[in-house]
Amino acid sequence: MFGRQIAFDEPLWLLLLLLVPVLWVFSFKTLSGLGPYRRIFALLFRTAVFALLVLALAGVQLQKITDRVTVIYLLDQSESIPKQTREAMLEYVVKDVAKHRRAGDLQNAAEDKAGVIIFGREATIEHPPFADEIRAVGMLESLFDLRTDATNIASALKLAQASFPEDTAKRIVIVTDGNENLGDSRTIARTLADNGIGIDVVPIELSALAEVQVEKIALPQDIRRGQPMDARVVIHNYAKPTKDNPSGEVKGKLRVIRRYSNQDELLGDGDMSVTLQPGKNVFTFTHTIEVPAGYTYRAEFVPDDAKSDVQAQNNTATAFTHVRGKGRVLLIEDWENPREFETLIDRLGKLNIEVETMSSDALFTNLAELQGFDCVVMANVPRASGGGDATTKEATNFTDEQISMLVRNTEQFGCGLVMIGGQNSFGAGGWTNTELEKAMPVDFQIKNAKVKAVGALVMMMHASEIPQGNYWQKVIGQEALKVLGPSDYCGVVHWDDFTGGDNWLWRVNGKGLARLEDRQKIWLAKFDRMQPGDMPQFEPAMTMALKELIPNPASVKHMIIISDGDPSPPSATILAQYKKNNIRISTCAVGSHGPATSKVLQDIATASGGKYYAVTNPKALPRIFQIEARRVARPLVKEKASGMTVAIDDPSHEMLAEVENVPPVTGGDTDRARRSLSPPMPASVGPGNGPAGRTTTSSSAK
């Protein structure tokens, strides 16, 4: 009545109401002195209290009755169900909701709700339970973030229970093939049923007869260069004869791709039409390998009829092999100085050693590309190079991941690694404080206290109007700091909104331009806390930096400015002082407001003899600052016009074979060996397994 009903949690307690007559009999006699009316009132009051106690024990409830229903559909999206079937499941839900859901109106407030939850390894809500139609979109949007390599019905049931509104009846419809391999859906289902949630199941029946699997690519164990070899692809057709396909054959296209040195090559005539008989099928691809390298083979099968293959995920197989020759060397050269080592390449060629050159602007992207070589030579290549104005090629650099690959390729796979010295190598090339320096037997930094400080760098940080501007300024400051050595000086100037003026990020003994020494980790942490403000003008900060740069004992002094060009430009007087004291300023225009503000930064760089960078992508900033920080490390290269005599201590060493009458060299790196070796020989990095013999490096001449 009125949409309400009374219910009890423990109805057996209501049997106590049978004691009401007994209560009346005993109480009627004990209350005889109250008179007839007061006696009746007292009996009624005692009866009411007793009844309320019984109702409380029975758990009386006043329930609101509603005929509104919320139905949540759980759709199984695991890989055991074909894609076409999964799409048909969504269409089924759309039609079922449209057929049975009652929409509310002015006369009838009842309104049913429907929602959709999809699940695989975990569950996610695709359509929340709203009083609205569910529309098919061809593909479920949440499926991109869903792992479908398992079936977990229990997680979907738990999510559905938490998603139900409180003012409607609750029902769950599970659409699945029932191949649960995670969770315990039966236990969860019993709990939901006890809570009044109905559960229906719509089973998905699969024929399980249409399935193709590419099992493997079989390669011979002994592969020789130039000899024909067979790559065999094994494909298993699990299909069984049916009325529509009495033979059980599956037709499709087979493709085998061979990859080496970042190049793909199709074997055979490309996509080959094949017919798979029930059971195992073997296809042979005969070919030859002319270049010793590491090769990755990949076989792919695509059926002509998608319905003839339930799971497309197992239609691919890969294999790897390494073909060795007499010797193969990868020489990485600086793209700004191509063909610098043609003499070395020709010399190795005469020794029947194959050399492949790689430019520093088109580097390797994975470890497999390095494993085809016996030795990797870093030929006077800097960590970062390029940049400049709009007419110059974009800055490039070795990422931390690529440096790690070089080291792992030597430590774990025994490949040789040689670093040839020069003005762009070792510490002068920006390799200081990298994993490559740790792997080398020489230090790229000058740690001798008797050696004069090599350089001083001042970075001016102005909050640029780019996305995550402060974040990128912290990153580039940290990257530039890593390039410097302990004998270098470094300082950072920025606008401090708290003090309302230009400040040094750190001070040591009252000076903002301080020697790095052992403070690198401390200063790297300071960058994380830096909050550069919107600098109103350049000149005060440039004047503050100039006062410390002029008396500084460093032999190279440099300044880098990153800004959007908004601050007022500096006067010609302050720029002339920078020029007079041989202090160059490089500028980076990031997020500038057109040619007017960019010209301010360009004029500063031009007037001081520095470089101007117009940056459109903030990700290029760390590379640019690595390049600029290398200018401070230039004194690591020592030159002597009269030349320095080269002595060969161990002419029997394999890397020095047939090397004689070396002319004097006019320059060299000041890196020093970490340890002495006996007998004297170039220091060793790793065991090496190639024709170049032991992996070596040393302080080399330009």
Describe this structure in words.
- This protein is α/β, with parallel strands linked by helices and 702 residues long.
- Helices cover 24% and strands 28% of the residues.
- The protein contains 14 helices and 34 strands.
- Strand 16, helix 6 (342-350) and strand 17 form a beta-alpha-beta unit.
- Helix 4 (153-163) runs parallel beside helix 5 (185-194) and helix 9 runs antiparallel to helix 10 (520-528).
- Mean pLDDT is 77; it is low at 388-393, 449-453 and 674-702.
In short:
The protein is an alpha/beta fold and 702 residues long.
List keywords for this structure.
alpha/beta; five-stranded mixed beta sheet; 28% strand; flat
